[in-house]
Specification:
Order of helices and strands: EHEHEEHEEEHHHHHHHEEHH
Largest sheet: 7 strands, mixed
Oligomer: single chain
Radius of gyration: 22 Å
Distance between the termini: 36 Å
Number of helices: 12
Helix content: 40-55%
Strand order of the largest sheet: 1-7-6-2-5-4-3
Number of strands: 9
Structural class: alpha/beta
Length: about 325
Amino acid sequence: MLDSCSIWLPDAEFTRKAGVSLASTLYRQNVTIGFNGELGAGKTTFIQGFLKGLGISDSITSPTYALEQRYESDLGEVIHIDLYRLEAGKDNEFLHSIDDHLGVRCIEWIERSTLKPDILVTLTEKDEGRELTVEFNDMPLPTEEDIVAWRKEVALPDRICQHCDAVRTHALDLAKQLQDRGVILRPQALTIAALIHDLLRFIDFVPGGGHGPDESTEAPEWEVFKKKYEGKEHEAACAALLRERGYSELASIVEVHGLMTPAPDRPTIEQRLLFYTDKCVKMDEVVTLEERFEDFRVRYTDGKHTKEGDIWYAQSLQIEKDLGFTA
């Protein structure tokens, strides 16, 4: 399933910031990113931002004459390649010479080769700015029809389905706000992650937790999954199920959406968005973080503040600030 996003870039600074944001939506170290765009479309400016996002502080220039430049980044070695001056027919030969590179490959003028990149970035000049389109082919995703089947397979309660659906809707609303600010993200991956983040939520059901009128009535299917993922909480159990079914990158988004101590790393924008959005949805209603955490306190600690709960609340507030959703 193809995942893509489009962003309007009014100027060079917006282009550079968009490049920085691409670094926060990578899910593996070995990835090839291709760049399309006419001369002057902003490819080098974008790549400068992207490499900055990867922690590279070196001065970045296009390798038009040198063909390639190499940098050390937070993800290992990055190769920046420019195919513009290669003779016809030499492009694929040159790219095959670096087939064994295990880091990030940024390839300008990718359309001159037959290589299919994991991520394709296209910059098109329009009016007084540029249109940026990013196509992601590096993360397999289940379909929404698959999600419906999985929910039936695990006998997921309707109220949990409704919560996941509401998280999906709110997550996409917030994602649109970020895209309008020039942030690159994966809308389809975010959609699917939101729809399944509580797929095995029943694993953590506790008496009096306010999960619904049938919280004490377990479906036969629940026992199967509780036994299979014994010792895991619902986030880790769902991630394990996804990895078994071939969706490792998606698993990494779902795995860290919960309230955990110590707080896990959430380096990607989809991980942070899913975590934050889930904390803004009480059952199927969008609320403030304070309202959501008050609901947690009422359901789990008799309305009392706890040290752990206050730490989780502070972490959520920090992500809200980092994402720019506070005044």
